[in-house]
Structure formats: structure tokens, C-alpha cells
Amino acid sequence: MPASTNRILPLLATLSACLLSTINHAQAPANNVKPPPPPGITRLLQAYPQHLKGFSDNQLLWKDGLAMRYDDGLLKTEDETFDSTDLDDQMNGLLYTPGIPTDTPTYNCDPGTFRCQAFFRKMYGNSEAEVRRHLAPVTWPDKKKGRSKRIWVTSVNGVDKHLQAVANELAARPHLRKYVTDIGGTFNWRNIMGTTRQSPHSFGIAIDLNTSNSEYWKWDHRETWQIDSVEMNLPWRNSIPLEIVEIFERHGFIWGGKWYHYDTMHFEYRPELLPPKKVSGTRKATAKNTAAGRI
Question: Distance of CA 130 to CAs 73, 156, 270, Å?
């Protein structure tokens, strides 16, 4: 073998080794760089900055020091997901689409109904007495023009203020009055009908509008709702104007009329399922740092 070849082969081997090392180094994550949090975590941090501060090792971090598991890693049936919802299920199991619906809900699609009970009990209160301590009044439109009444929801996360903003918009639109007066209720510590799960009404974050001008699938099928064939062939019904839905969504509330198991009178405060409101200046920088887990 020529001497030049003897020199070239070791050089090629060295270059190959260096190239491989460079590629591996480029692909390997930097020791001090943490992966970004899951999108669901980012939305939670943006929606509830008063309570949540970050994310680490599959734990949602609360400002009072509590660490709450985000994803339990379990494969679940639909019933198991409802009965043991974790935060990952809540954020990603069924995605809520804001805006005017382009079609009726698909079979068994009830976005927003996977609720991590531990999260809501921690946020709003673990008992009826605890939730009651945070209730605040909202001035709501009454039947007669210019008249109003007081209703009660939680003040946690400013839900009372968000609902007051909804009420103010509705009061300025008299053509919507018949749908929003004589409401079905707000705070009520109870289970969801036919389940052992706590209703969002228990936490003071939900309101049912006029029951005479809205629909609920179990009321429409009072004697037969537990029969599989009835549930599988459920015709969607709705009388609530979508103008009302747009107002509620603008202030952080989702609508039960976007569920296959429709509950068109129902609205609940769930800002983590809606696009975040735009912030500017210092608030925007703070929100960005919070989402990145720096605060």
C-alpha cells in the first residue's frame, strides 16, 4: 500500500469520528435546557395566573406550594376518563371550538365535560361552606326593562366580574331578554344528574339560563335517557341564539350547546379552553415568563 494511502486512511477515520461526534452533540439536548411544557399546561398557566406558577416533572405547580400531577399515564375507557379525569384529559381529551358552530356536535363529543375534580376543588373550594365564602353578587337582567336582580357566583378568578360583563352586554340587547331572565340557577352544591361527579355549579362557575327557552337532553328524554339506543340516536336541539353564545365566550365561558349531550341553557367559566385574551407591555412579558415556568 502506498505511503500516501497509509496517511489518508487514518485521516478519514479521524474526520468521520469528529463528524459523528458533532452530529451526536447537535442532537443531544443541552444539559441545562428544559423541554417546553405541554400546550395544556401553557393554557392553564395563562388562564389562572393568580393560582398557578409553573410546571416541573409532570407536576402543575401552584403558588401555595402544591404540586398536582398533570398526566397519570393511564389508558382509560370513556367512563373511566369521566370518573378519574386528570389534567391532561381535561385539557386534551375533548377540544372545545369557540365561535359559531359549523355543524351539530358529533357522537359523544362533549368538549369541556372532562373535569379534573381535584383541580376544581383546589381552585374554588373543597366543600359547600368553602365555596360559599367566596360567593359574590352579580346584577343580572330581570323580566321588565330597566329592572335587575342579584345572582351569586364565585369571586375566585374574578368569575363574578366576568359574568357581570356578560350581564351588561345582555341588558343592552332587549331582544335577548326572554332567554336570559328567569334563570335556572347558578351556585348549587350538587352532583351532575345521574353521576357521582360534582357539577360545575358546585363551584360557583356556572349559570343556567331560562329553562323554558332552552334544552337539556335528559329532560327531553326523561324516561328513556339511560337506554343506549336513545343516546346513540340523540337529535340535537337548541333555541338559544348564537349571539348569546358569542357574548359568553368572549368573557371566558363555554357553552353546553356544543355538546352531543346538549345542555343549551348551560354556561361555565373555563378560560383554559378558550383562546387567551391579548395582553400588552409588562403584562405580556410576565405572562410569557409564567408560561415558560420562570415565575
Answer: 31, 12, 20
